[in-house]
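Chapter review: from sequence to fold.
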Amino acid sequence: MSTQALTLETHDETVKDGIVLIDFWAEWCGPCRQFGPVFERASEKHTDITFTKVDTEDQQQLAARYGITSIPTLVAYRDGIPVFGQPGALPETALEQLIEQVRALDMDTVKQQYAQAMQQQKAQQQAQAARGAQTQRTGTAVRAGTDPAAF
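The token string follows.
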């Protein structure tokens, strides 16, 4: 299976099942052009994995959703959960090792850890919202010295 283009519209459906690798790239990027053939060869070898590419020039909203500031950047999903993300062009052996590591993941453990991380993130967002509401009610901000999230 060769690579396919990933867009903002097709993203969620594409990453929800199985192993999905996403290569964020741009035509003008030398390291991206170097990594492209490596990524393509891996896609031909591992036909059970979905290999996608995001042209950061064309899909600026999707790149922004990921906070992409350096390309190429490789992101890996397994069963809808992001399990890897790193900028830089990987050599072929490193990409093969990454694929094997993603295959070997204990997804029950990963799902538990992901659920816990999401709960913590939600609690932090609620705490920040509560601090913001307190600031609006009292007109004073919580001092940074007493707020561990302010560091």
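Two observations follow directly from the output. The first strand starts at residue 4 and ends at 5. The longest helix spans residues 107-138.
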